[in-house]
Amino acid sequence: MKFRLVFLPLVVFFSFSNIHAESLEPAYFPSLISSLKISTPLDFCNEQVPVQMQEVRERLEKELLLSFWHRSQAILYLKRSSRYLPYIEEMLKDNRMPDDLKYVAIAESALRPHVRSNKGALGFWQFMKYTGKKYGLEINSRIDERRNLFASTQAAIRLFQDLNSIFGSWTLAAAAYNMGEEGLMAEIIEQGTNDYYQLYLPLETQRYIFRILAIKLILNDPAKYGFYLSEEDYYPPLSFERIQVQCSEETPIRIVAQAAQTNFKAIKDLNPEIRGHYLQEGNHTILVPNGASMDFQVRYRNLLKHWEAGKRERIYYVREGDSLTTIADRFGVPLSSLLIWNRLNPRGVIHPGDKLIIYRNERKPIAIDNDESNSNAGS
Q1: Which domains does the chain have, with CATH numbers?
Q2: For residue 144, is pLDDT > 60?
Q3: Which of 67, 112, 266, 300 could in theory staple to 259 by disulfide, Cβ–Cβ 3.0 to 4.6 A?
Q4: Global pTM?
């Protein structure tokens, strides 16, 4: 009897699994040994890789095998490549830069705008804050252009141009991108060679070019390495229009989203450099979904007028013994809303006399005056 009770659930489980497994395609992987065979000359930015050297081949094979091991990561950057690489390729071409530099962005971030390293490097090209600012990126509490594909790629191009002019080699420029130009120059002087493949460098930098080469090989021939992606498997390219948004004061991003006839998340996803829930005072170039630019300014002005007219805010001065939690409870608003409205850090401290803005506890969608919108459609 006990055997029957145990056996029955197993039969049900495997029957259920088989039903759903029928729709799954079997996986076919080439042998690891055959995947390691490099049949053609290999280069990085038109600089030959000496794969005929045993030690160089070993280092490349190691990175290829690690990429095969982390197949999920490789599949994701393959799928993302169609979303972001066309724009990177175009910018590299416009600046007469080697196309292979696009693989650096994959090695750095796997094409993720928000990824941050343990050392504080951030964004598609993993800029440190100091270096990002040096190369023209706006980085502050409101905007972080390291997350912006176009601004960060332009900064990376300028940095690579400088590094290449210093070292006279794109391979060494990429190594310097990883470890810093001063550190690399010191090693070149001390070791008496400027051949990347013969330099003894920090272990991460010794692997760096080979990680990039492994990515290049996989992207150029995914099927050879067991990644069988159809055209539909790749993510669609970024689709957007650029608009100008003028803010006479701090403006909620939700107002921009409503004017673009989309949602808050769509605006944040298209503009990952924007931090928080508000656009600061000034002029901004914002990406919006395709088609949203038509009559955007009319809708935006209309929404701003209604928002400003309907704004109900109360200025509260912090008293002795107050905390953010007690203030939120007193006015019946979520603590998280209080933090957003006042740009507060959850771990921050408030003091008696501090001024807080507290909106009334209702948030209804702002209706657009269709008559006004239609009457201004031609403006």
Answers
A1: 32-233 (1.10.530.10), 239-311+369-379 (no CATH), 313-359 (3.10.350.10)
A2: yes
A3: 300
A4: 0.79
